[in-house]
Amino acid sequence: MPLRILYLDYSPGDPKHRSKLDGIRRFASGRGWEVDAVPHGTVPAAGTEALLEERSPAGCIADVSDIDVLRPPRLFGRLPLVYLDPPGRPAWIRRQFVVANDNAATARAAFQELSAGKPPAFAAVAYRMSHPWARERIEVFRSLCLASGRPFFEFVRRSGETPEARAARMAAWAASLPDRCAVFGVNDYTAGEALRALAACGRPVPATATLVGVDGAGEFPASPGSDAVSSVQIDFERAGYLAARLLARRIDAASSPSAAAPEPETVLFGPLFLLRRASTRGRARPGPVVANAVEIIRREAAAGLTARALAARMPGSRKHFERRFREAMGHSVLEEILHVRLERVKTVLVRGDVPIGVVAAMCGFGSDIELKRLFRRRTGMSMREWRARHAK
């Protein structure tokens, strides 16, 4: 009979939770486990012990991404337990087995995208600052901005403030930001608020500001001059996989009396990629020259196209062309070429039948080492690891 494990406080309507469950099931399939996902809110904390008695699981993954579902470890007794995606790391949870979001890496990914357009200033819109993950993202992003030597502005929520009052105050704050300011929303919800605030004060994105959110959850309400917001896509599927793998260690140790009990640990998961949309394409509409350049990049980046060779095919000087391209797209010609090449790499990897050693040459990279370093820097994993997770 297969072992049963619980994924407790699963939210079927939340794409993040569905991805976590996919990761749990991916690991479970290799172990022959049965995964029982228990929806959020169906079992109050006081009913945890009764649930465990009814289901008799071999272990539990407790999703605590919402503060109101922090179930203390005493409710689980001796059952092998892993906490998944806690909103912070209080002292008691640091003594548990935890899979947590790498908020510092998330903030760095957002800064990298926003700084590519060389903005004169940066800004951030916080979520509820009682959430430790929000504070950590803001603090890391602020330190990166100040280290760049450019001003930093922050919109801070006020306790007890109505949504209407907050929207009015945020619009006034958005109106005061420098032209071409780069704005970071610590999640997609706050990025959506920032988008509406900028529209309310007559500052369309990306013409007057660039904007990045976090989670890659989807489109935002339309705003004048903007069709979508770029977002740091978090690897929630990997989070579920790591939680199941950590739980396996606990279950294995519990089933072997002679085995030493594993020490509590925290494993981090972070960004998967940057979902680039219109909000980081710069301040100008791409004219015919830039539009033609983008089309050439789409066709020829994987064939070894370089920024210098592309500029030679455009009218005027290289410096003038590259300035126009950056103004329109929000990043350099080289960054666009690398972005297209990496998308091509992922397409090739998904096929599963191409040897890793020939991918660089197929996708326009000068060497295998160059591609391997860039791929790990951008995705946080090797090409082999990425293929194992995504190959059809």
Write the layout of secondary structure elements.
Elements lengths: L3 E7 L4 H17 L2 E6 L8 H8 L3 E5 L17 E4 L13 E4 L1 H13 L6 E4 L6 H16 L4 E4 L7 H14 L4 E5 L2 H13 L8 E6 L15 E5 L1 H19 L11 E4 L1 E5 L12 H13 L6 H6 L5 H12 L3 H19 L4 H7 L5 H12 L3 H8 L2
Helix pairs in contact: 1-7, 3-4, 5-6, 12-13
Walkthrough of the structure:
With 392 residues, the protein is of the alpha/beta class. It has three domains: 136 residues, Rossmann fold (3-Layer(aba) Sandwich), CATH 3.40.50.2300; 138 residues, Response regulator (Rossmann fold, 3-Layer(aba) Sandwich); 103 residues, Homeodomain-like (Arc Repressor Mutant, subunit A). The chain is built from 14 helices and twelve strands. Strands 2-1-3-4-5-11 form a six-stranded parallel sheet, with helices on one face. A six-stranded mixed sheet has the order 7-6-8-9-10-12, with helices on both faces. Helix 1 links the parallel strand 1 and strand 2. Helix 3 crosses helix 4 and helix 12 packs across helix 13. The protein is globular and about 75 Å long. The two termini are 29 Å apart.
Total helical elements:
14
Q: Numbering strands along the chain, what is their spatial order in the largest sheet?
A: 2-1-3-4-5-11
Mean pLDDT: 88
Radius of gyration: 23 Å
By CATH's scheme, which homologous superfamily of the largest domain applies? Response regulator
- The CATH class name of the largest domain reads Alpha Beta
What is the share of helical residues?
40-55%
Please indicate the percent range of residues in DSSP E strands (runs of 2 or more): 15-25%
Which runs of at least 5 residues are low in confidence (pLDDT < 50)?
222-226
> How many angstroms separate the termini?
29 Å
Number of strands: 12
Order of helices and strands: EHEHEEEHEHEHEHEEHEEHHHHHHH
